[in-house]
Design a protein that fits this description.
There is one protein chain. By secondary structure, this protein is of the alpha+beta class. It contains 3 helices and 4 strands. It folds into 2 domains: 34 residues; 67 residues, Alpha-Beta Plaits. The chain has a two-stranded antiparallel sheet with strand order 1-4. Strand 2 and strand 3 form a beta hairpin. Bound molecules: iron/sulfur cluster (2 copies).
Length: 104
């Protein structure tokens, strides 16, 4: 095999490998898109700082309820969970460890 042919083969092999990785990453992305999450708030631990409301990048999930709790602040709730991307920001940034995101 000539040197130029070897180079061509190496280049072709490299492109094939790159395409294989790309296809694998794409199927992972599709899988992530089809995942569902539940978001639970432990009302006993929550202190009403509303960080979760501020950090969630998806509109319409966290909200502040009208009712004032026995601790003297308005509770947070999570709805429209089909919109949750599972980014975990709410769970990671809650200072009271009161948010749990579960992959279902
Ligand atoms: S971040 Fe945690 S403590 Fe703060 S409002 Fe949300 S659930 Fe409650
Ligand atoms: S996991 Fe991300 S998208 Fe889902 S509720 Fe928490 S912050 Fe919002």
């Amino acid at each position: 095999m000539k040197r130029s042919e070897t180079q061509n083969y190496t280049e072709l092999h490299r492109k094939t490998q790159n395409n294989a990785v790309g296809t694998e990453q794409m199927s992972e992305a599709v899988k992530a898109k089809n995942r569902s999450f539940v978001v639970e708030i432990n009302q006993e631990w929550c202190k009403g700082c509303y960080i979760c409301v501020d950090v969630c990048p998806v509109e319409g999930i966290f909200h502040i309820e009208e009712e004032v709790s026995d601790k003297g602040f308005r509770r947070v709730g999570a709805v429209n969970l089909e919109r949750c991307t599972g980014c975990m920001l709410c769970e990671l940034l809650c200072p009271d460890l009161a948010v749990f995101v579960k992959d279902i």
